[in-house]
Every structure is written in C-alpha cells, then in structure tokens.
User: What shape does this take?
Amino acid sequence: MGAMPAIPLDRVALEASGLKKSFREREAGERHWRQVDAVAGIDLVVPRREILGILGPNGSGKSTLIRMMATLLIPDAGYVRVFGLDATRDRMAVRRLINRVSVEASFFKKLTATENLAYATGLYGVSNRESQQEAARILERLGLPAQKLRVPLEQLSRGQQQKVAIARALLTSPNLMLLDEPTTGLDPKSRREVQEFILEVRATHDATIIISTHDMEEADRICDRVAIIDRGRFVALDTPKGLKSTYGQGGDSLEAVFFNLIGSTLEQDTIDA
Amino acid sequence: MLAVQVARESQAVWALVRRNFHLIRRYLGWEVVFLFYNVVNTLTIGLIGLAMPAGTARNREVVYLAIGALLWNFLSILFQEVSNSVQWERWEGTIEYSFMAPIHRLTYLGGVCLWAVLYGLVRTVVVLLGVAFFFHISVGGADLVGAAMVLLASSVPFIGLGLMAAVLPLLSTERGAQATQVIQGVLLLISGVYYPVAVLPHWIGWASVLSPATYTLEYVRQAVLSGAGVVSLIPVSLGLLLSGVVLIPIGLIIFTVAERYAMHRGTLKRNG
Ligand SMILES: Nc1ncnc2c1ncn2[C@@H]1O[C@H](COP(=O)(O)OP(=O)(O)O)[C@@H](O)[C@H]1O
Ligand SMILES: [Mg+2]
Assistant: This one.
C-alpha cells in the first residue's frame, strides 16, 4: 500500500477511514444467509482536484465503496467525510456537494433526455431553462447529436445514455464527482470522448473525481492515482507510474501490476459475475 | 439562506409534478384505456340501481352507488399514485438518484402527493361528467359545497395511508406492490363503498371505523342525497383533517425509518 501523502485539511475532498460494509446473501433454496464482506476496511484520503481511479475485478467492492461515499449506503464501520462533512450525519450537506454516475444509466426510459434532465436537476433546485442550455452544451461536447435529446431514452444506445447520465451529474455542479464504471460497455470512440471530458471537467470545474473502472488503460491514462481493490480491500494505492515501478516487474502497463497483485482471483471473479 | 432552501424545495415539488405529467403523456394510450374503464365501471355500477322499480328510491339508489364508485375512484387513485411513485422509481433504477438529491424527504413525498391529488381530481371529474351525461339524474337538493369540503378533507388522511403504502415498495419491489393491492382491497371491503357498513358481518364490520373512507362516503352521501349543510359537515371534516394530521407524520416517520433500513441493507439499488 502506497504511503498516504500528508495533505492540509482544507485541501482534502474526501476522507475515508476504517470503512466496512457487509451484505447478507442467500441463494435460491438455501436456508441460511451468508455474509459477504463487500468492503472490508478501507482508508483513503483524496486531495481536492485529484482524479482517483479505483481499479478492480467484478465483485471487488467498487460500487459498494462508491455508494457509501454517495450517502446511499450507511457503513457498518468507519466513516466517509466529504470536504470535512460526515456522509451519514451531515447527509444533506454532503449531497449538495456530490453527484454520481452509475454503471447502468438509470432513467425513465420512455421519457426523453430533456425530460429526464428536467426532473433530475429540478430535484436539485436548478432552474430548468438554465439546465437545458447547459445540458445541450455538455452533450454537444460529448458528441451527442441535439435531436437525440428529444427522443425517448430507450431509443438511445448505451453509450449515448451514459453520456446523458454524465450530463445529469455535471448539471448540478458537484465538487466531488463519483463515477462508477462510466465507460463500461462503451465503444472505443465514446470511451475516449468520455475520458477526455472527465479531464476537461477537472480542469474547468474545480472538481474532484473518483472513478471506478476495470479498464487498466483508462486508469493509466486519466488518473493521478490508482487504488487497486480486491475483495473489499485496497491492495495498492499510488500513481500509475509508482505502481508500475513497484509491482510492474519492469513492464510498462498497469496490466502487469494488476495481475501481479490480484493474480488468478481476477479470472475466477470475472467469470462468476 | 432559508429563502434559498424554500425556493429549491418548491422547484423540486414542481419537478416531480412535471415528471409525472410527462410520463402520462408518454403512456397516453394506457391513460385513455384506464379512463374508459373507469367511466364504464362507474356506469355499470350505477346501472345496478336502475334495475329497481322507477321512483325516488331508484334515483336515490343510482346516486348512492355512483357516489361510491366516484369516491372510490378518487381515493384509490390517490393511494395508488403515492405508492406507485416509489415503485416506479425502483423499477427504472432512478430511486438512488432521486433520493441522493439534497432535498427533504417530505418535499419529495409532498410533490408525489400534490400530483396524486391533482391527477385524481382530474380523472374523477372526467368520470363524473360521463356519469352525469349518461344518467340525467338531478341532484337538486344536494349540498355540493359540503360534499366537496368532506372530499378535500379526506384527501389528507388518504395521503397518510398512501405514504405508509409507499414504504412497502421501498423494502421490496415485488412484495411491496402485492401488499399495496391487499391494503387497497381491505379498504374497499370495510369502507362501505357500495353498501352501508352495517351489512358487513360483525367479525369484519368493526374495522370500518378505522378507515377514513367510511366517513368520507357516509357524509358525502348525506350532503348529496339529504342536502346536509356545510355547517353540519364541519365536525366530520375536521375529524378527517385531524386524522390526516396524525397519519401523515406517522407515514413520514415510517418512510424515513424504512429508507434508513434500506441504506443499511443495500436494498435501494436494483443492480450494478
Ligand atoms: N445491495 C447489495 N445486496 C447484497 N449484496 C451486495 C449488494 N451490493 C453488493 N453486494 C455484493 O457485494 C460484493 C461487491 O459488490 P460491488 O460493490 O457491486 O462490486 P463491484 O462494483 O466491484 O463489481 C459482491 O459480492 C456483491 O454481490
Ligand atoms: Mg460495480
């Protein structure tokens, strides 16, 4: 595990300590519940304006970790603080500072992008006219043709839906963006567009970004630091360069690092999921 | 600061109403079908009354039944819209986004309820027009103002019940929807929608005093059929309001507890 840099408190966007979350799980027909330790003790400090990558196989706890940061799950142990505010106790204040993009786009599928965005931003108290203009600008930047905003979302491809989801999150001007596998299932061109856009958001919005992914090239390309997560624990946390020099055995890709640290469990979990 | 918060929360209420309006527009076919069914259903129930020998008793019976059908129509829309809204958001997977918004849960639920009342009124008025056109029955001696007062007062406890029902889909998508239907069925049985509650067998009849709809139906009928005046309807209206003032906070507390439970157990998420 990489050493945690000493960061002055006013420059900390997110801090997590001793974070744990377990779920109960039962297979069909089974009588007893089994405990799944989705997040099994995570400590983390993310400085302002950092892009932190969370890289891990399916089922390693990425989404659970992000949900706790997003005030959607209450930790069993430990805490998350966002700009010094506790994600459980000061939930409302934290919610004003964050937004999240999940793997699945999650929209009212019969409604158009415009209607969906009107609803989502309306809940944040953003005026509709303002948000529609900004949405058009963001989506144009992401390469989504304007007329796509006026057809039911179910008619958009997954990549196009994901772009609308990114716009939805950005429209509320969050200081901390939580992106849960935003590029999974996107074609290479769309993936590239989204990655470029994430970099642009950080540059223009004073935003801190936490992004989970299982795309190593992506993590390498856009993240300042990368945490490698396996079975609910960080097994490494460093800059891509640092990771490569520590665990890469002389190779120049994060892939070598990843397989070194996680090894065979990757294939097994990926097949399970 | 407070003004900003209030502006934000009213924007959110409006966003909910607007979203539901958009959804209706998109599912217009269903809307027309439901409305058609509602009108026909109310008419057929009224027609049961027409089977009686002609005379004032017959007119009275038709109106008695039509009031039951109309009110049940309104109250069940209210109840269903409130509980469906959570159900629907869970189904689409938007609930995590909606619940992550920095607004009070009361605001969210307030928007849902406001929509339910508006929508229920519009649909009921359409059915009422259909009924009036079909039966040509005059309700000359009726005190419609009094009837409207009782009806509005009874929306309040029904919203409270709706909030409690909305908790169920929060805990389990499928079971929740099932439970909502069961609760609605029980209310239909015990509230005397098409018959006086006195005809219910004793073992279930006592439960009628627990349903706000029992009072709504009884007093709206008094207003329309016997011309009971506004003044005489004030006590029951206040009673209904008061029960709402008790039921809504209880509903809200249950909802908040259930949401917290869901945030512990991870049941808000659909997948991913
Ligand atoms: N809400 C939940 N209820 C039950 N089990 C869950 C829930 N969320 C996640 N899990 C389980 O926790 C583990 C980690 O899941 P998740 O955080 O989604 O991983 P990832 O996002 O890395 O694929 C998995 O075994 C998953 O089945
Ligand atoms: Mg995930």
Observations:
- Chain B touches chain A through 37 residues (CB under 8 Å).
- The pocket of adenosine-5'-diphosphate (ligand 1) is lined by residues A 23, 25, 36, 38, 56, 58-64; B 266, 269 (CB under 6 Å).
